[in-house]
Amino acid sequence: METNQTYKNRALASLEGKWTIGAVATLIFSLIVNIARVSITYPMDDTTGASVNGIWILLCLPLMWGNRVFFLRLIRQEDIDYGHLFDGYKDCVRIGVTLLLGCFFVAIGCVFLLIPGIIISLMLSQVEFVMEDDKEIGYLDAMKRSADLMKGHKAKLFWLNLSFMGWIILAILTFGIGLLLLLPYFNTTLAYFYEDLKAEQQIG
């Protein structure tokens, strides 16, 4: 496995000349998942708003998958367009159920203590990528494969995520506008991390 800075440098190299498509993809994703959700639920009372919010998140799970996989395809230099963000809806049951189960397991871990929730989240962090590379893999098998890939690497991914904290704070200070550049950078870095996990397992 490479150093955190190496993953970031590789991400920056892949985004050269592609910052616009990364930023626009992030904007589309954010508008649908966050802005539209807030706009719809804002006039509602707390109970109705919470229910609609939950339903909206469920409906957006395939889009969340598509957003992660978008940047994996980018580093693989595949042909991509904004329509690929919605590819998850072609297989929405398998993808939606898998991500929902992952959220459930993370939530259960957080109920007991924050640390178990973080560990489970790290274990399942590669599920979207695994499902992109194996179109037939089932719900639990995808999570198991992610957990297998992450054996011995959870701490490294934790620190890689944490290394973006300063950039996140700066992006928030720009009223979120900076996230349009930061999130492509972050997601591309994570895509490279997955590629190394996968290569290491194949070598092993």
TrEMBL record:
Pfam families: DUF975. Signal peptide: none annotated. The keyword Transmembrane applies. Keywords: Membrane, Transmembrane, Transmembrane helix. InterPro entries: DUF975. The chain crosses the membrane at residues 21-42, 54-75, 96-124, 158-183. PANTHER family: MEMBRANE PROTEIN, MEMBRANE PROTEIN-RELATED. This is DUF975 family protein. It comes from Segatella bryantii (Prevotella bryantii).
